[in-house]
Amino acid sequence: MTTNFPDGRITLIKGRCISIPGDDIDTDRIIPARFLKCVSFTALGDQVFADDRLELAGNHPFDLKENQGASILVVNDNFGCGSSREHAPQALMRWGIRCIVGQSFAEIFFGNCLALGIPCGVLSKPEISLLQELIGRNPQNTWEVNIEKKYIKDDLNKIDLEFDKGPHNMLISGRWDATSQLISNKNELEETMRSIPYLNQFKSN
Amino acid sequence: MHQVTKLPGGSSQLFVGLHLIHEVTSPQAFAALEEKNIKVRCPERTVATVDHIVPTTSQQRPFEDPLAEEMLSTLEKNCKSHKIQLHGIGSGNQGVVHVMAPELGLTQPGMTVACGDSHTSTHGAFGAIAFGIGTSQVRDVLASQSLAMNKLKVRRIWVKNKLSHGVYAKDLILHVIRTLGVKGGVGYAYEFAGPAIEALSMEERMTICNMAIEGGARCGYINPDQTTFQYLKDKIHSPKGEEWYNAVKWWKTLASDSLARFDDEVKFDASKIAPTVTWGITPGQGISIEETIPTPESLEPSERPIAKEACKYMNLKPGNPIKGLNIDVCFIGSCTNGRLSDLQAAAKIAQGRQVATGIKAFVVPGSEKVAKAAEKLGLHNIFLQAGFEWREPGCSMCLAMNPDKLEGRQISASSSNRNFKGRQGSANGRTLLMSPAMVAAAAIKGEVTDVREMFSPSN
Ligand code: SF4
Fold it and tell me: Ligand 1 mean position to B338 CA, how many Å?
């Protein structure tokens, strides 16, 4: 957990994989609502998957010794559905996750990840199963996610990843930090505001 | 019209007409702004309230929970230093953000509305483009009054005929989600239309759009019409005088016409929908009150694992009826069903009856305005006499960020919108979603009940 948070261009992530099997894992499970009562995100890393971990009493992937320090999360279908809380990717990021690979992602979750600089790459169902099996066999293995060239590989296997074009561009060019982009289009914003009826007493347009 | 420009990533920069904030998803956004020394771009276009963490028994400050107190005072401090209007406790306007904003006339047709809360889809009921955003986007909107947005496809959900007696907007939307699935709407905005939708009041329309998000859609949308304008007339922030007429004129041009083309269209028949209850751990796991818990064989193979997980978690057996299932807690409230008409529907069932022994039942108005209006009608007395608790406004047991929580394996009949594992505050607590009238009926009988059997000939 010593890696810094994402910054600048995001092109390559190297590390061990951790797999959380199951479809439709919602953000309430990733970070239960009671932990949202915070004014900063700092402690969220310890609370990620809190209830699932409690239930599995030490046997949850996030508690298993061999998974500590992993940085690539491997998931199944519709990961991150449910509440829009950005706390979910924040919690994952603060635990140490820098990249997620899965069959599909819920939209808001995907957007929240992008805004933090966490790439979410897509694989087909059989490819995910294969990857999960490989990780299960050898959790210590180091994998490389090449965002730029769109693949995940280890010494023996290489699987092509899919990334949405827009987000992909933003990640590899370092323009995923939306705020500065948005602020810079000042004149365009003012022009837009001049043309919106409800900002201009609904005068006929 | 709201597009500022195209962004390099291929998305659009979209101007946000109304930005709503609350205590949970805003503090980190403000902190990020301050870190970078960025000012709020249009403080007058952001409106704040407090809802998620407020206790509903005593709202005396400081709150008993120091964390909740810290969240509220952080919001107060942020609003003050950035000159943002905050509708706090006791202001007369406080409430769940998706209840109070429409009540104040803040949400209007043709606006873009954003809020750091997924149920922002609610505001689409006014013919607004409204969607939930994450905290980093809250920061973006504060900083630039805009955000990056991808184009959504539109699926029209056409509903013919009309809902039968004892069947409500909540049943309709639970039925839609059950049919199209919790992922059915991913990548889409759901536009609800057709005679059944047109016949709904604004409050009912809000219930529908509120839960569009549970069907995977980012937005819900309903064309503005006379019902919309009627609702908005004379609200605090509605346009007045000459402006009102110009506004209506513009709003009327917004409706997508009957020839509009949609990316997809699905049709429903409202008259065929029965009171609907969820039995599982996603809002899509719903059945009508007359049905039994589905057997794995009756489901699509892809739905079987989650159904199995749900049965185990809920402790339910496939093939068993949902009707007659014993419950422990009854919650009426939330941004889905905490409005005046919801409380009226529930009060009708509660009137002259008693909550079954051993059942904890409580009513949480969605806002201070709802509470006041309900008290004026004497609804609080009907509830109190029947053995319900009458609480102060807030999100309450919709999610467990305040003292209202399930305990242990308790099972609730809830008028809220999510039945995820642990949603209502106990890691193994269980939730059955249903309409407020169905919750009231369950409270009286102590078990899941068909509300239609509880109407006297006069109502
Ligand atoms: S009532 Fe529930 S769904 Fe609505 S804003 Fe509050 S917590 Fe969210």
Answer: 10
Interface confidence (ipTM) of the complex: 0.90
Q: How many domains does chain A have?
A: 2
pLDDT, mean of each 10-residue run, chain B (459 residues)? 85 96 93 86 98 95 93 96 97 98 98 96 98 91 94 95 98 98 94 98 98 96 97 97 96 80 94 98 98 94 94 97 98 98 98 98 98 98 98 95 95 98 94 98 98 82
Q: Residue A83: its chain B contacts at CB < 8 A?
A: 118, 399, 418
What is the predicted pLDDT for the residue at B258? 64
Ligand 1, atom nearest to B334 Cα: 1
Q: Considering the domain boundaries, does residue B39 fall inside one?
A: yes
- Out of A22, A37, A86, the one facing B53 most closely (by C-beta) is A37
Q: Is residue B459 part of a domain?
A: no
For residues B220 and B279, what is the distance between their CA atoms, to the nearest angstrom?
A: 24
First to last CA, chain A: 56
Chain A residues whose beta carbon lies within 8 Å of the beta carbon of residue B132: 84, 108
CATH code assigned at B245? 3.40.1060.10
On whether the CB atoms of residues B327 and B432 are closer than 8 A, the answer is yes
Shared-domain flag, residues B163 and B139: no
- Of B272, B307, B330, the last residue of a domain is B272
- At A34 the pLDDT is 82
Shared domain for A167 and A181, answered yes or no, is no
Whole-prediction pTM: 0.85
pLDDT for position B192: 98
Contact A170 B25 (CB under 8 A): no
pLDDT band at residue A18, thresholds of 50, 70 and 90? very high
pLDDT value for A1: 36
The residue segments making up the domain with residue A163 are 2-174
| pLDDT (average), residues A153-182 | 90
> Based on the domain organization, do A134 and A186 belong to the same domain?
no
Same domain, B77 and B166: no
Distance from A142 to chain B by nearest Cα, in Å?
Answer: 31
Q: What is the pLDDT of residue B135?
A: 84
Examine the domain organization and report whether A100 and A197 are in the same domain: no
Domain that residue B418 falls in: 278-454
Q: How close B203 gets to chain A, by Cα (Å)?
A: 22
A168-193 burial, b at 16+ Cβ within 10 Å, e below that, comes to bbbbbeebbbbbebbbebeebbeebb
- Contact criterion met (CB below 8 Å) for B287 and B438: no
Are residues B46 and B169 both part of a single domain? no
Residue B117 in contact with ligand 1 by CB distance below 6 A: yes
Q: Do A57 and A9 reside in the same domain of the chain?
A: yes
Structure tokens at B35: 């870190």
| Same domain, residue pair A98 and A138 | yes
Determine the average pLDDT of the residues in A22-44.
86
Task: Locate the ligand 1 atom nearest the alpha carbon of residue B333 and give its number.
Answer: 1
Record: contact B247-A198, CB cut-off 8 A: yes
- Statement to judge: residues B20 and B115 lie in one domain: yes
B417 lines ligand 1 (CB under 6 A): yes
Q: Where are the alpha helices (DSSP H) in chain A?
A: 27-30, 44-47, 50-56, 87-95, 107-116, 125-137, 165-173, 178-184, 186-195
**CB within 8 A of B317, min separation 6: which ones?**
B293, B311
Q: A199 and A99, same structural domain? A: no
Strands B329-332 and B264-269: unpaired
